[in-house]
Write a structure and sequence with these properties.
binds 2-phosphoglycolic acid, 8 strands, alpha/beta
Length: 249
């Protein structure tokens, strides 16, 4: 059985007090599904969030990290720094990182390597732009993103990799991929993985969908056989909405 995962990407939202308040509200919610629950607060609140979720089933994860071990990279955060405060999982390759901070498949491949070397779990994000989909190129684009950033890895590394398909046109726009569009792409991703690494890897990697998942559409999206969870932006900032999505499984 693949793991079900629902991860909340808080992006650049919530200072310390809001982080405390939201975590307190999250801890009051009842989890009725088997999904693993993750939240990704901003760097400055990771330590506090980690401490305050210790006795809960919520895992605190990072939104990004640098590929180097340490050194002259002003403003950056390393894998070792994250691990030193207990963080075991990092989101890499979010489309906002690619679009606004020039992250490329090549730099992401380095970050993925660093995470794997440090025994961290990676939620690796990718997805096509609207123009790609309009041109019918979505599968080719997604295949390249996966190949370029991940296909140098050995099969073993995929124990620590979760994929997140996030069509750029659906992120923060209120426009969601239809459950069928999500399923078709997830099946394609799984086939691509199996083609390179065999069915064991293809069948075992969790593939999350991200892009305007809300309480009112989560159930239908999660009902698809190749959708193993969600990466949630806007709706993860409200405890009831986030848990309605967690419990949609
Ligand atoms: P959204 O963001 O749910 O607000 O569309 C998803 C994401 O960026 O991961």
């Amino acid at each position: 059985m693949r793991k079900h995962i629902v991860a909340g990407n808080w992006k650049m939202n919530n200072g310390l007090i809001q982080t405390e308040t939201l975590i307190a509200e999250l801890k009051k919610q009842e989890k009725t599904s088997d999904a693993e629950v993750m939240i990704a607060p901003t760097f400055t609140n990771l330590w506090h969030a980690f401490q305050s979720t210790k006795q809960s089933s919520i895992e605190v994860v990072a939104q990004n990290m640098h590929f180097a071990k340490n050194g002259a990279y002003t403003g950056e955060i390393s894998a070792g720094m994250l691990k030193s405060i207990g963080i075991q999982t990092v989101i890499l390759g979010h489309s906002e990182r690619r679009a606004y901070f020039n992250e490329t498949d090549e730099s992401l491949a380095q970050k993925v390597d660093t995470a794997i070397e440090n025994d961290m779990r990676v939620i690796f994000c990718f997805g096509e732009e609207l123009s790609d989909r309009k041109a019918g190129n979505e599968e080719a684009v997604v295949e390249n993103q996966i190949k370029n950033a991940l296909f140098h890895l050995g099969a073993d590394a995929f124990k620590n990799i979760v994929l997140a398909y996030e069509p750029v046109w659906a992120i923060g726009t209120g426009e969601t991929a239809t459950p069928e569009q999500a399923q078709d792409m997830h099946a394609f991703i799984r086939k691509t993985l199996a083609g390179k690494y065999g069915n064991d890897v293809g069948d075992s990697v969790s593939i999350l969908y991200g892009g305007s998942v809300k309480p009112n559409n989560a159930k239908e999206i999660f009902s698809k056989p190749d959708v193993d969870g969600g990466l949630i932006g806007g709706a993860s900032l409200k405890a009831e909405d986030f848990f309605a999505i967690v419990n949609a499984f």
